[in-house]
Each structure stands twice: as structure tokens, then as C-alpha cells.
Hints:
By secondary structure, the chain is α/β, with parallel strands linked by helices. It folds into 3 domains: about 1-15 and about 200-305, no CATH class; about 30-200, P-loop containing nucleotide triphosphate hydrolases (Rossmann fold), CATH 3.40.50.300; about 430-530, Alpha-Beta Plaits. It is built from 20 helices and 13 strands. The chain has helices at about 1-10, 30-40, 60-70, 95-105, 115-130, 150-160, 180-185, 185-190, 205-220, 230-240, 245-260, 270-275, 285-305, 310-320, 385-390, 395-405, 450-460, 495-500, 505-510, 525-530; strands at about 45-50, 80-85, 135-140, 170-175, 195-200, 370-375, 420-425, 430-435, 440-445, 470-475, 480-485, 510-515, 520-525. It has a 6-stranded antiparallel β-sheet. A 5-stranded parallel β-sheet has the order 2-3-4-1-5. Strands 6-7 form a two-stranded antiparallel ribbon. β10 (about 470-475) and β11 form a beta hairpin. α2 packs across α14 (about 310-320), α4 (about 95-105) packs parallel to α5 (about 115-130) and α10 crosses α11 (about 245-260).
Amino acid sequence: MSSYYNILHFQKEPFSNSPEPELLFAAPQYDICLQMLEMSVRLKRGLSIVIGDVGTGKTTMCRKLIQNLSVLTPSEFPDIDTYLLLDPAVKSPMAFVKTVAAILGIQDISAEDSEWQLKEKIKNFLFEKGVNEKRIIVLIIDEGQKIPGECLEILREFLNYETNDAKLLQTIIFAQPELKKSLAARPNLMDRVDYIHHFKPLNFRQMKAMIEYRISVARRETVNYPLFTFGGLLAVYFATGGYPRKIVSLCHQALLKMIIRGKRQAGWFLVRSCSNKAKVKPQTSRLVVWGAVATAVLVVACLYWIGPEEHRNNAFIGRALSGIYQKKEALHIQESAPPLSAATAIPATPELLPSAEKPETDIAPEKTPEPLLGSISRNGKPFLWNVVNDIYGDAGEGIMRQFMLANPQIKDARKMAKDVVIHAPLVMDMARPIPSRTILVSLQSGNELEPLYYAFVERKNQAGLPGLTFLSFWSKREGRKFEVVLSERFVSEQAAQEAINRLPPEFAVSAKILSDWDDDTVCFNRRFAVGK
């Protein structure tokens, strides 16, 4: 084994068949998925699902996610406890509930407990950890396609364990496509899924980068010559179809044969000889081989330099989340709107038009900044996804994309500087009219985003206060306005006044009832708009 490392100048094995998180190549689909899962967990959104064929990297992604969630966070943010269920194939719902309770480490379980009693113990455990200890509990299920249908219903019941603004159990399922059939038969569960991602095989460019990345991680720093020729990489791609597990296995076999034959690089014929032994259909003649090579070079060259539409779309979302996207996009704003500048807040008459992607020839967003709701100095405190979720009631791919376009100074959503200024764009497709009969209770209001937002952050988890929501409004008469309101909507002003009377005195004295809205008033919070 030492000769293997010495000949190839490795300090570790680059193509191990174990799911090593540090060897996970950050292809756009993996990087996007990883960050969206992290956001869903930290925002306590409930259920997320990752679906992919055998060998597409689900298990390695699972281990990488666990590694990321175990990283210590600043003291003002909750710690995360992660629990892993490797094989959910159980014989009955009762066995599933027992398994979950055991994994969570619940101690007071007895053989006489009924299914209902076990669920109550799980609920009490989650409440104690999530509410009293301020911790985030994450249950990660691998091989999710093995979950019996009745147990999917139990997972749906777990989603009902929640506070006014958060789920108490965050569940992430990694599964093969067979799970889709079970989900399709349960629309009431699908409606509760916060995020779902489908893994696909890598394209040639991504596969090449993955192989080079693994080799670079395994190698000593002083050595950098390639171990695979371009023809060798083509052979790997044609034999594996871009499936990471097959790529890893074939590359390992190719390196072993390369050492045995005393070669410095693995080329087309060496890789093909390995794939043939792995029961890949051999070519019928050398003429066919060279014809295939010539055609393949042309096809892959086009794919390499132009890239498929899917890759461009993945890169687009990736830039919005982690600074890897380079294209340009702007929101469609009515031509009659006033000229835009960094200080522009809201156009005089906003048109509620959806956002859309513009051609690459458009002016870059940083040269024509979108109108803003306002700006917030981070001061080392909130995570970006907390800010987005608090202000817009949503932190999905669409809103994160537009948010990152308004903040080109943020290259990675997870690694913001402590003193960065965060700009909150005016997202037109978030705007929803406020019914004139809506009755709310406001604890604080103002025209500037930052002081109102930090007042909300300070109060939203304060003992003695009911659930709070941060709302951004606009109307022609009052312009832009922000309110920290009780999350409840009231059927009458009398009911609203009773709620004020129940508040702690220091908040009740300044609370006010909001009603009789102007007809053109709109709100920019999706969760409030849909009545969640």
C-alpha cells in the first residue's frame, strides 16, 4: 500500500469507496442542495427531500451535511443536534416510532408504551429541546425509499409538532426515485415538503473537475501533473455515464492498472480495458474505436466549451447562494418608474410583475441596482437566511437569487463579514394586496428598515410575548412602512384590543390596532400573505 501512495505521490486515497465528506466535489447541484438543506434546517422549515439514482452521491452528501451542521455557531444562534437513521425499513408504524424514539435518545421508554404514548414522549422531548433549550433537532433518514407508507404518515404527524413560527423536528430524507411513487400517493405530505432536490449524473465538464479535485485533495502539494489524459477522461465518462460512484470505482481500477503497467497517465485504451472487465460492452473493432473517439471529441468539446442549458441554470442558482454564478439578471420594472439608484426605495406606482431572467446582454445588476426596501448593518449578528426569512417569509431559491443579486458584496451566504451591510431588495412578485378588513396589532412601526428589524429580532423570542411577524408595507399615501405585529389576525377590533390587554404592560402601552387599509396597500411577506 505504501508503494501505491509513493508512486502516485498521494497522502491519502483519492477514489475511496467510503463516503468521505472532504472528497465531495462542489458541483453546482451539490453546492446548491447543501446550502438549501442547511437553510431549511436553520430556519426550522420542517421536511426536505433529496432524490437520486443509485450512485449519484446521496450518501456522501448526507455525511457532508452532518459535518456542516456540527460546526459551532455564534452563541446567539441555536446549536444543532443531528440524528441519523440509516435503514428505515421497519415492519410496522409502532416499530418506526420506537426506532425514532431510540435514535433521539429518549430514556423513559417501556415495553408497555402504546404508539400514542411514544409519540407524546417524542413531542415532549422535541418541545424541551427546541423551546426550553433553544436547540435545533435534525433527523436525517438515508435509504428513504425503504420507508413504509404508513411511516410516511407518521413523519407527516411529526411536522405538526411546532410552535407559532417553527417546526420542532427538522427531517431530511435521502432516497432513490422509488420514493416518488409513495409521495405522489400522499399529497397531504407533499404539500408540507419545504425543499426537494433531484440529483442527476454529472456532465463531462463536472466529471473532469470532480476527478481533478479528488486527486488534488489526495496529493502532496508539490506534485501537479495530470494522471488522466483527455482520452482517458472521455473513456471514464462514456463508461460511467457521469454517475459519481461508477466514476470513483473506475478511476481506482485505472490507477491500479497504470501502476502495474508502469505508466504515468491513464489514457483511453487503459481506461477502456478496465471498464471492459467491469462488464461494460467492449467495442467491436479498432476502426469503431477510433470512429467513436473522433465523434466523442467533437461532441464533448462542444459540451465542454458551450455547456448544457442545465449546467447554466444550475450555475445561475449557485451564484445566488455561494458566489459561483457569473451571469446577469434584473427584475422587470415598468418603464414609467423613476430612475433607479442605490438610495431608491420604492417606485411611485409599483407594478406587481413577476421577476424574470433577462438575456446575457442586459446591464449587470450592480450597475443598475434594484429598488430597495432598505439596508441592515449585520454587526456580526444575524445569518443571511434569517434576515431573508424574517423579512420576506420565505428563503427559497427564487428569493435568495434576487437577494444575492442585490448584494454583490456577499460572495458566500455562509461566510459574511461581520460588518457587511445587507440590502433588502423590493421583490415585486412578493407583493400582495392587504384586504381592507384585515385587523392586526402592531407593537412598533417606522419608516426605516434597520431599527425596526432589530427591534423585531430582539422581541420575537422574548418571554411573555405571543408570536411576532415582521411586515413591510407600501401604499401611495404613506409610502414605505415597517411594522412589528402579532402573528394572529383578528376578526374584530374588540378581539384585537383584548389581545393588547393580555400583553406585558411595557408593550401594551404602545401597541395599536391596524385596520381600514388603503386600497393600494401591499405587503411583502409571503408567509403573511398566504395566512401561515
